[in-house]
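Let's do one together. I've listed all components of the complex below, 1512 residues spread over four lines.
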Amino acid sequence: MRGSPFKEIRRAYGFDEVAIVPGEVTINPDQTSTQFSLDGITLSAPVIASAMDAIVSPSFAVEMDKQGGLGVMNLEGVQARYDDPDEVISELAEAPDDEATEFMQKVYSAPIREDLIGERIEEIKSNGAKCAVSVTPASTKRLGPAAVDAGADVLVVQSTVTTARHTSKSARGLVFSELLEMVDVPVMVGNCVSYEVALELMETGVHGVVVGVGPGAACTTREVTGVGVPQVTATLDCASAREDYFARTGRYVPIITDGGIRTGGDLCKAIACGADAVMLGTPFAQAQEAPGKGHNWGMASPHPALPRGTRVRVGVSGTLEQILYGPTSKTDGTQNLMGALESCMGMVGAFTIRDMHKAEVVIAPSIKTEGKHHQLGL
Amino acid sequence: MRGSPFKEIRRAYGFDEVAIVPGEVTINPDQTSTQFSLDGITLSAPVIASAMDAIVSPSFAVEMDKQGGLGVMNLEGVQARYDDPDEVISELAEAPDDEATEFMQKVYSAPIREDLIGERIEEIKSNGAKCAVSVTPASTKRLGPAAVDAGADVLVVQSTVTTARHTSKSARGLVFSELLEMVDVPVMVGNCVSYEVALELMETGVHGVVVGVGPGAACTTREVTGVGVPQVTATLDCASAREDYFARTGRYVPIITDGGIRTGGDLCKAIACGADAVMLGTPFAQAQEAPGKGHNWGMASPHPALPRGTRVRVGVSGTLEQILYGPTSKTDGTQNLMGALESCMGMVGAFTIRDMHKAEVVIAPSIKTEGKHHQLGL
Amino acid sequence: MRGSPFKEIRRAYGFDEVAIVPGEVTINPDQTSTQFSLDGITLSAPVIASAMDAIVSPSFAVEMDKQGGLGVMNLEGVQARYDDPDEVISELAEAPDDEATEFMQKVYSAPIREDLIGERIEEIKSNGAKCAVSVTPASTKRLGPAAVDAGADVLVVQSTVTTARHTSKSARGLVFSELLEMVDVPVMVGNCVSYEVALELMETGVHGVVVGVGPGAACTTREVTGVGVPQVTATLDCASAREDYFARTGRYVPIITDGGIRTGGDLCKAIACGADAVMLGTPFAQAQEAPGKGHNWGMASPHPALPRGTRVRVGVSGTLEQILYGPTSKTDGTQNLMGALESCMGMVGAFTIRDMHKAEVVIAPSIKTEGKHHQLGL
Amino acid sequence: MRGSPFKEIRRAYGFDEVAIVPGEVTINPDQTSTQFSLDGITLSAPVIASAMDAIVSPSFAVEMDKQGGLGVMNLEGVQARYDDPDEVISELAEAPDDEATEFMQKVYSAPIREDLIGERIEEIKSNGAKCAVSVTPASTKRLGPAAVDAGADVLVVQSTVTTARHTSKSARGLVFSELLEMVDVPVMVGNCVSYEVALELMETGVHGVVVGVGPGAACTTREVTGVGVPQVTATLDCASAREDYFARTGRYVPIITDGGIRTGGDLCKAIACGADAVMLGTPFAQAQEAPGKGHNWGMASPHPALPRGTRVRVGVSGTLEQILYGPTSKTDGTQNLMGALESCMGMVGAFTIRDMHKAEVVIAPSIKTEGKHHQLGL
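Okay, and this is what the predicted structure of the assembly comes out as:
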């Protein structure tokens, strides 16, 4: 005897568990296009640097723009709290390991200064680069329109979990449709992981949806709160929402997979599973140009009562250009990410990112580190 | 050619294999309620400290009550066998590793003294705290009513595996419906793991059912006897029994998931899978207030012929208040358990524990320790 | 487009992947019976010691009989090749690691002497113990009847893989039905793993079927040749054959699961999956009475051209009596195997081995070694 | 609410996840035949050495022929670029670890000289051995016919991913049906992994199809680009194409599984899953006769912009004869590969490779390294 199940539980998959199947036709990598468009803004590389203090400073955002991608500056981080953010970031990077979280909790208790926000945006814009900034939903009404007035080209509204319907004690929460009337730039919103929420967000009129909650193996949001969905499944589900919304309305709202992408392989898998672009942390924290000087930390790490994640040492592996375009003698997939994507598109027979969405994907046993080694020339 | 299968075997899941999916709406954590009720006794925190000698002394039970939870004192442990239990627990904690099991076997061969039971209950009650005590089924008739007469507010009847129907050579075993006529306090019974047994226990009239047999990764009951069910499946199955029983009778019998919960994430998953409250061992053994001083051992460890589990060093991580409510600079989920639960409820959009039962849960690959790290601010 | 599948592949399970679900009723362990019968020969403990030179010497077989089980002496091992087998076994146990396989290949090239077989059987019989001996199919006609004439009580015909139909260049292979006319003792045959082969073997009239090919994690038969079936599935499939054969003929042919059983938990799982008895190697190689003095090796290890498995150091953990019946202070399931079985039967509510066959079994994630620890008193 | 799935994802399997089930009949290994035929060319051993510079030199190809197998010489490697390839290979083998990839990138930038190709082929042919050579699709028109004119007996056209339809900017790519009119020797083409591509390749008229993309655990093609299919599934799918093509046309196009085979067990599994022959790298790189002197590297390792895989130290384990036929005292499956195959065929009851295709295969938990050890004599 067994009653009706209390609930159905389906299997979700992460990057390490899948692989891309080569296509029925192959094409030369030099015939592929990796272009990504967000409501009229076009990137030649579909890669966005995460709004993390150890990664996106104004100068990093400028360099990212030169390389064809986009860097998102966090308007609630060190850049908006200190006159000399580089110095504070250096101190954070050099604090002893066992004091790092406590020190961060202190650093991030300094107030956000709206005057600094304008200055930082100006630093980016004056160098001729596109400027993308991020705010949390709770601060959006206060900081978002101000940032756009100061010249921001893209607004990212992002928290661990964002929905179109949020309940709080404050008289009236953030309503995305109202926000869109106030700002005249593309708005990306996230993070979400499910079909329903992605669809509801698209229905508010936003221009891009950021996908990913607790995906990383050591993303401690999942360890601390149990919440998280592996990225392959999250991406597939939100891509499904995008297709249905597109079929119904004719408006194509790209999805950006954020979190857990470490190698060219992860990046290719995200796109094969339906992402239009990816948001990367660690790989860019390893760039010479990143202010963290080989360290990285998440924006939930300094949470005063419930910190999730710690500062980690990621090392410096090369210039941003090398990381994105090579050449390299590294063989672990962490450099020449765009070369890897074009090579993958060639093997899959995809001329565009949109073609890549049709690639076959299989569930495959995790890659282990022991030494099997066999490759043939392309 | 293949005959009819000898038996069907279904897949069962543990905490490490699942994750909670954020909800369609989100709410602010400060709008959630974590209240738990057991037949009129109400806790503001749905957490119960296991009836283990290294955890629940009378003073720990008092502190637990202050913090909104409940500590269960074991009436067959050191508290009921020695005039100075603290000293014996200290000796147990300090015995050399290779002698610990043997030493325990000796310590637990001392007789249980009914006079001490009354004293210990009085220690708790005189401090104004609720008093919960546990007995094994074999001793229930002898010790249970006496404990209630001495002032116990909750009676827990607990063994590795408990059913409503037990056969022994003694003329007449424990019948729960008869016990309930003898004692006038809420009775929790366990442990069980299946729909059938949970349902049968509920039908005897008990007020709560404790769920969990051999769930922990190193719970040696499974290694020694092969018996055990991973906690997610056990919780789901017993929750299913609770719902069916409630639908049929209108009486709501809460289930308490016991075993294998180490982090806020585990706790949240247990509740998302249907638990009304959780029973914790290790996290409370790590409290400064616990008599084990950073050690813990199960009540099956000293079994004279078939010991299961050993004394383990768990360390002291903070005060009970920090463990339950923070603040903390620990990022591994072992502190601020209630903050984690409220944060999870916010992301799931659950105002109450009962709402949390509707959360979507996915099977997700186990969290590994290697270093992926990416978090965003909530 | 995808063609019809080349072949169907089903999932098979091993001991580490399953767990036993407690029953709807429980009984006191002292009310259980673990008796096993093989065509009139009855054992109080359903455990058989593998025909390995490091385990079963004549004196070990006598001790095993005293303890209620059965030890099988290998008639093609050292006992049948050397006047002083104990000395040879000591030399084998002490050879340096990197020379062990080569040394074994040499030792096992000495001829089998039929006179020694008679002597060894007499050593066992003169001590009042039951005598079980094993031969490979190729030697059965030559050695089997001779062993029975010398007093053997049970004949085990065993090779890595045995079927009722074997093709070789020799004029005429072993036909089990003919063998059964030549010897008047119970005959166990194996090893097999599938429904079909188990059924065909039963139809030849043999009295017991030994189950298991390449089950162990490091059994190198699987590594070397790819052949093997995890033991849970092998046992379930052969149990299914036993049931169908019994339903059709009324003759009950017990199955004996052999290989991969290390702990009480493994033993209980084998029986819950349909085994009537188990054959154990390592746990008995760890007995003080075993001639290997803490070492063990398989009979395929010395294969001259294709050795599989090596000599391993298993250590000496206690007397045979302790291993089977305790008492013990070990908590890892390697001692008091029969106590573990009785405890399991109690939790499952099984009075007999036959009742244990009805236990529910679930697929559960593998037990890992990290430190979760939570047990409650039985 | 959940939309229609964005795409279906099926589970794929690798060697470590499956095992071969013994057959209903068994035969003596000396009655088996392991013969493999490729359009009239017959090998007594179905094993082909990969076209890797660390493995197949002209002298290695001669030795491989003597042992009944086939070695493929790479016409785009060191043999075709340098007058003294042995010296260059030695230098490559001895370069410091951290410079190996860069050094390789340099070595492989030297031009391919057609005069050297003729010389190397002559070295093989003059020793009376069959000569097999490999080229990439892009070089096939230039190098293929020339090699055949110089005496090559088998032409292998091989790249990481090959399809019958490739798009490039050059006016006209390689068309296999046209190639087959130009060369009068058997042509093997690969690598592919899917039913569709294998079938399309067969339909062009080629004589053999090589199967395998990114199968190895550390094959970094999968890590770098995300592309790859575990070998068991790839082999099953391509075998399905072979059967359908054979049923429709009467022409039998053998498939050769390439990549990830390390042990006799892997080899047997590949054949049980439908391979007609296997292509091996590492096991032959370990032969005394291999020019890499205990090192190995893939042909994608020196890719100038996107290297995949590195030079690895594999050690020297014995002569080629020992690796293929033993005798050995190694018990890990890396030696006596043909003895392992014959032993497996005996247990499965397969007289021929074609019979092996009918073997039952199960999904079995991965072999772990911990110490279970139990074998019985065959």
